[in-house]
Amino acid sequence: METDILDSLEDLGYSGELGEEGGLRKAVEGPDGGARCLGYTSLIAWVTGELRTLSSLEEMVNATTDVDEHSSFLMELSSFLKEIGCPHSQMTEGAVSQRLASPEDRLLLIDFLLGELMAARMISEAKPDSAMTVEMVGSSVYLACG
Q1: Model pLDDT, residue 21
Q2: Which of 74, 96, 101, 129 has its CB surrounded by the most CB atoms within 10 Å?
Q3: What's the CA angle centered on 45, arms 44 and 48, to 5 degrees?
Q4: Which residues pair with 134 in a beta bridge?
Q5: Taking Cα atoms as reference points, which of 143, 138, 90, 84 lies closest to residue 115?
Q6: CA torsion through residues 44, 46, 51, 52, sign
Q7: CB 142 within 8 A of CB 135
Q8: What pTM was estimated for this model as a whole?
Q9: Which residue(s) pair with 132 in the sheet?
Q10: What is any one of the record's Gene Ontology cellular component terms (predicted)?
Q11: Beta strands 140-145; 132-137: pairing state
Q12: Which of 90-94, 106-110, 124-128 has the lowest mean pLDDT?
């Protein structure tokens, strides 16, 4: 899963410290990983910020600047995940302190959010300009932009 995540980060234009295999592994493993890792919260804040803009979402997730802010990060993340309809209940239900407790859950979160971001970008690119109208005249179709 790590290799797929690194490939996705590169494809999405992420240039932060977790774009390297060693950086990602360090950010998700051990007691100082996940919500207690400033780089991890920075990555999650970047992805959720992109999603928020593309999908016109209300909730936002801020990166932490201190390891003691991990609880507020998890609460913001939980609200964001509920807003986008995250299917992974271990990230939105139960004790906040148990969310993202394992490296697998931390990687799952990144993988899920990156998939959502890729989909949002594809939808955004495929969405026709809102000012475009289709007008049928006789047997011909004319597109009017403006």
Answers
A1: 77
A2: 74
A3: 80
A4: 143
A5: 84
A6: positive
A7: yes
A8: 0.84
A9: 145
A10: tRNA-splicing ligase complex
A11: antiparallel
A12: 124-128
Q: Which residue has the tokens 């906040």?
A: 96
The percentage of residues in the chain with a pLDDT greater than 70, rounded to a whole number, is 87
Largest CA distance in the chain: 69
In contact, 113 and 44? CB cutoff 8 Å: yes
How far is residue 58 from each of residues 51, 71, 113, 132, measured CA to CA in Å?
11, 20, 16, 27
DSSP characters over the chain: -HHHHHHHHHHTT--SGGGSHHHHHHHHSSTTSGGG-HHHHHHHHHHHHHHHHHHT-S---PPPSSGGGHHHHHHHHHHHHHHTT-S-GGGTSS-GGGTT-SHHHHHHHHHHHHHHHHHHHHHHHHSPPTTEEEEEETTEEEEEE-
**Between the CA atoms of 7, 13, 15 and 20, what dihedral angle is there, to the nearest 10 degrees?**
0
Cβ contacts of residue 63 below 8 Å, gap of 6+? Answer: 38, 41, 42, 44, 45, 46, 73
The residue type of 8 is S
